[in-house]
Amino acid sequence: EVEREISFRTEAGLYYSYYKQLVEAPTYMEGIHSLIADNITEHQRTINIIKRFNIHQEIVLGTFYRLFPWKHLVQPIYFYIDTVFSLYGLFGMAMFLTAWLLSGTWMSGVLAMLFVFFNRSEVTRVYFTMALRESFAFPFIYMQVGLTALYMKQTHKDLVQRLLLVGIGVTTMAFVIAWQFAQFVLLLQAFALYAVQIVGVVPKQKIKNLFLIHIGSLLLVFILQFGNPMVLQSLVLSFIGASLLVFTIQKDEVTGRGFLFHLLTAAGYFCLTIVLSFALNWLVKLLLNVEADEHIINFVKGKLGLLDPWALKDFDVLLYMCNGSFIFLPWEVIMNIVWTLLLPTYLLVLSVCVLLLIVGVIQKWSRVSEIEEKGSEPLMYERADLSYIVVQSVLYGVMALTTRRFIFLWSPSMCVLAGAGVCDTRLWNGISKKLRWTKTMGVCVQYGVTCPVSSVCHRCWRILKSCVNSGTQILWS
Among 78, 324, 330, 456, which residue's beta carbon has the most beta carbons within 10 A? Predict the structure, then answer.
């Protein structure tokens, strides 16, 4: 078992040691106390591990292992590993169902999973580094994204919407408590939600409900982590607070004012929100008298060229700058996802959706009358869930291009959007209807877009052939 344990790389071994410490403690409460008052991790210091690190997943797994009968049936390390792989089963299920939700056909889920299979080295690191914080966190964020997209639909009853909000709150809390960088992913999501609200794709009340759920989840994490100051002074909490303040003065949609009026109004609201966000963040840091995330802010400034990290002599910042996971996205990674046809398919779908969204915003803001013909609503305004996923995926892409590690956040989004876009007959039929194409032209476009499917299946066959021995390959050839 020692040989298996030393196979955990980098900080993964440290996190596993806390799980093992809880499992092997004489009593459960002694194990919890040893984590709250730990004098082994840091030299000559006693620290609260639960407050210092994101180890609630180890606590939950250790608790389940001690309480249930499988304690005598499976070794602790196998229980730990199997749980991580099971979570990634839920991760795949969440991507499958999200693609199905967006397109209305299960074939999009299958195609998304094929993209995941071919790009597995860029989608996850779980198959060679299991105990990373992201291995526990990513399944929950994609479950949350799927539930959020489902909540965007307009056809749910009040009870269903409440249940969806509860699910969003639980998965958000699980995501934040599992990963130290979760607040930055939630910040990108908050930007996406704010964007689809400010252009009128999603009603303001729905976004307010989602933001309130996010605040509740963050505050619950703050309590569970024994008052971790990084939660309260996170930029996402400040941005959400500022957004809710701006929502109170934001007027409902007014037609007849013209495109330029709406553009300037939206820009004004956004600038006000950003200013209030930084003001709230500064105020929270002043009141708490802490700078827990200052090294992360300095790292971002260093990446953008606004600060010389070597002159700063901050060990944490220099460590991030030297780490290969935090460099700009290498060209070979881009070529890998090009070769598997993920990036070309994704860019095709993304370009069409972004263009439709821009055209829809221009049409919506250029209306001169509140009286509109039935069915004249812009296409992407009728697909609020797809609009949200598209905007969020663009933000994930920006993060991944600037920081190598976040390719594992962007790639699943690419797989979902590529699979959903290719198989979304409602999208392509809607385009045909809006452009008044003939039926033949619409069919040709749909079949043309589905060309990547056959190519992906062909590559699947080639990979399966390469996985067998040479003798079998000769027989198949």
Answer: 456
